[in-house]
Structure formats: C-alpha cells, structure tokens
Amino acid sequence: MIFLSIFHKFLLHFPHFFYIIKKITIENSYYYLYQIRKGVIQLKTVIIGTNHAGIAAANTLLDTYKDQEVVMIDRNTNLSYLGCGTALWVGRQIESYENLFYTNEKAFAEKGAKIHMETSVTEVDFQNKVVCCEKANGSKFQESYDKLILATGSLPISPKIDGHDLDGIHFLKLFQEGQAVDAELSKEEVQTVAVIGAGYIGVEIAEAAKRRGKNVLLFDVESTSLASYYDEWFSKDMDENLKKHEIDLHLGERATAYLGEERVQTLVTDKGSYAVDLVINAIGFLPNNALGKDHLKLFKNGAYLVDRHQQTSDPDVYAIGDCANVYSNALQQPAYIALATNAVRSGIVAAHNIGGTPLESIGVQGSNGISIFGYHMVSTGLSVKAAEKFGLSVKYTDFEDLQRPGFMTHNANVKIRIVYETSSRRVVGAQMASFEDISMGIHMFSLAIEEGVTIDKLKLLDIFFLPHFNQPYNYITMAALSAE
C-alpha cells in the first residue's frame, strides 16, 4: 500500500510517465482509472449531431464526468430545436419560435465543450479513430477520439417520383425547413396546400395550414390517418375531426407525380389530379447511417445496431437517437421507434457508459400523443394492428364513457383500449382519446408494459374517485374488468 501511494504521487507529478505505463497495461487497469479520476489525463469523446440525443449525451458527460473532453459537431447553424413545436408556430398557436430552442452553443462552451457548428463530417476513420470534417467555408480539419457518439438522427423519406425537384415542394424536419414552410404560407398566392403523409407531422401541419386560412388536402396510402399509432376505432375519430374542420382527406391514395414548369402546380395520384400551390412532404423518416453503414452492424431498417448500453459493434462507437435501434418492452426485442423522448434517454445511457458508470437501458414503450383542433389522442406500446404485424397474438378490451359523472357540467367522452398478450396476459399497449386532457393516464400504461403487468392486475387497481376528475367506476377499471 505504501508503494502504491508513492507511485500515485509520482504519476500525479509526472503525468507524461503514464503514457509509458499505458503501453504495458490494459486500458481499464487500476492506474489508468486512477489517472482519469484525478484528472491527470482526459478521455476525448466526439459527438456527431447536436439535437436531442447529442445534447443529452453532452450534458451528461460535461455535468457528471470532469475527466471528459467533449467535442460537438453539427452541420446546422443551430442546436436543440424542438421540432414538435413547428406546427404550433407555423399555425400561430404560439407567438414565435424562439423558445423552441432550449439551449445554445454558448451554454456548452461555458461548460468546456469544443463546438463545431456548420460543419459536415465527410468521413470517419474508425481504424485510426479520426473524424474528418469540413466547415461551410470549405476549410478542412480532423478530430481524433477515444470514444465516438453517432447522433446523426434521421432523414425524411423522399420518393424520387416525377417532378420531385420542382420548386414549392417542402419537407418538415429542420428549423430552416419550418421557416421555409412558414414563408410559403405567408404568400397570398399560396391558397391550396397538399400534405403528403397523415402521420403525426402531416396531421399537425395540415391543422397549421388550415389555421392560416389555406385550403388543405391531406393524402396517405393508409385507409385512415395516424395508422402507425392507433387502431381504426381511434383513427377514424381523428378523420372525422379533420373533416369537421374542412380538411379534405384523400386516404388510401398514393402520390405518383408532380407537374409544373418551374414550380409545382399539380399533384397526380393513383386516383386523380389536383391543382396545388404548395406541397409539404411528411411521409416519414429513415435512420441516417451514412457515416457508419460500411463499418458497423445495422438493424433491419438500416439503423445502427446497438446493445442496451447504446454500444455499436465497434466498442469505441456509440449510437443514439433516431439513427439507432431501441429495445421494445412490448415486443421484448429490438425495434425502431424514432421519438425525441427515446433520443434523450439513449443519450443519457450512452454518456454514463462512456463516463465509466455501467448503465443499461430499461427499454421503451414508444409513448406518444397528439392534439388536433382540441381533440387529444395518446398511445403507448402496440396497437392491435401493430401487434399482428409483428406476429404477436393479442386480445384487447374497449370501454367508452363520460370522463366525469353525468351531473358535472364540464364533461367529455373518453375512449380507451387496452391491448394484452393472449398467452401471458401482460399489457402490451394502450390507446386513449378525448376532448378532455386524459394524457397522464398513458404514463401508467407505459410503466405497466415496462413491468410486465397483466390485464388482470388492473381490474381492481386502486384508483381514487372525485367528481371533479373522474367517475366512481373509472374507465381504466371498467376496461380491465371487461377483458376476456
């Protein structure tokens, strides 16, 4: 012990000597860890991508692990944009977009991070652990790394149909794309807007365009809106809500071409042609795997395949957010669920593992929600349709009632569906909808899925009653009691 104490002091006074020691000891040796913890040496982590996942990872490393040198690289001019708020400011439901940026470059610089904005990563040399970069002005440089975090996100699906390169056709993911759409909707000559894709982003931007006084046509190849998240018992209600607010639905219809001279003037589908002044594509997203697809193992949809520590097939490379797979507790297997909340959690998990604190992801349920013209829908886990797609045998139980007792003047209808596995009877999904805010209930179902709670366990769940909030026979209890 006396020898160790003397040796430690020697290393603290002569840090360069450590590098000789490192050559003859394994990386996780006692002395290596000691040097890191004392701050004699630093580990360098490079993060490519600075939206939700990258920011969560950077904050965790900078706030918790003082031995970390953190380098952040992004091709954009800004970081931390809450894209879920785009439709709100485009639709003028909030005054401006400024507060959709929840942090900035200065905040990370003050914590000691090295930041390269407006910088593209042209190549990653995984063998030599070097990131090759190019700034917007054309200057090139390299960053070496001990650990690399890929937070490259996703890219919008862009079918190369005839006329796809015409002016007046927009996507909606980045802040700058939101600005472009907002500018288009400000033009007097833009009167008819076609939205391609009736998922969350498509439905939200359709509402926003309608709030701006435009004629809105909403297209999707599925037979209902929101088909990826909800069964028809719910999604058809949203369809009726959209129709009620004069959004022209074209479901079960596929876009095949765009016509026009320089700017789009006509949208052609497999069922007809429509005069349009603006097209907004919201078909969906694919993982952005350009930097590592030839080196790293991939999930079946092209996302980087990661373990529960967010580690890729290269032990020095982690992948987080939309470019990586997740572990689905409903399916009990890897899956791809691109949500901002999943991205944040994955960034935290990766950072702790890199920092030296072993941490395993507890998995996700894919909890989500939407509110359109005051109608709220929330879901978690699997719908019946999704479960069948993945080959999971399920049953479901439905219930519909008023939120509060009938004598309460402020009231609204509530719908609920609980999906459970046939064999184990564990809850694997839930959907709820109402003009009331019933969103908090879905969090309970998310935890139930994570913990493997059965439908039978919910039948006599201790749920309080007060007329201001709910019925004595709560809709959650009633749905569970009516299960087979």
From TrEMBL:
Catalytic activities: 2 NADH + O2 + 2 H(+) = 2 NAD(+) + 2 H2O
Q: Where is the Pyridine nucleotide-disulphide oxidoreductase dimerisation domain?
A: 375-470
- List the molecular function annotations (GO) for this entry: oxidoreductase activity
**Is-annotated flag, keyword 4Fe-4S?**
no
Q: Which cofactor does it need?
A: FAD
Q: What is its EC number?
A: 1.6.3.4
* Domain (FAD/NAD(P)-binding): residue spans on this chain: 44-347
- What are the entry keywords? FAD, Flavoprotein, NAD, Oxidoreductase, Redox-active center
Q: Superkingdom of this entry's organism? A: Bacteria
Q: Name one Pfam family in it.
A: Pyr_redox_dim
What family does this chain come from, according to its entry? Belongs to the class-III pyridine nucleotide-disulfide oxidoreductase family.
Q: Protein name, please?
A: NADH oxidase
